[in-house]
Specification:
Layout (H helix, E strand, L loop, with lengths): L7 H10 L4 H17 L4 H40 L2
């Protein structure tokens, strides 16, 4: 899922050196690798988000422009009706 660098063997060795049984150290290292790889954004994830943000920004600019034009038109209409 992700290209995160995680040295499972080194982690298991460190845990074993700290006094954990080898099987438990391997299980913990495997769980840590899974947690890291599932919760880290990849370059593709970030690129997709950048594309979505750019599209959202475009929509917001279009909406804001349309809203500004509508407000100005409404103000001119009110001035015309109430004689300004």
């Amino acid at each position: 899922m992700s290209a995160t660098a995680f040295d499972m063997l080194k982690t298991a060795e460190d845990l074993t050196a700290a006094g954990l049984p080898e099987a438990q150290a391997k299980a913990i290292a495997g769980a840590m690798r899974n947690a890291v790889s599932e919760n880290v954004a990849t370059g593709a994830d970030i690129a997709r988000l950048e594309t979505q943000i750019a599209a959202l920004e475009t929509r917001m600019v279009k909406f804001g422009s349309g809203l500004a034009i509508a407000v100005v038109a409404a103000l001119f209409g009110l001035l015309r009706v109430f004689g300004g």
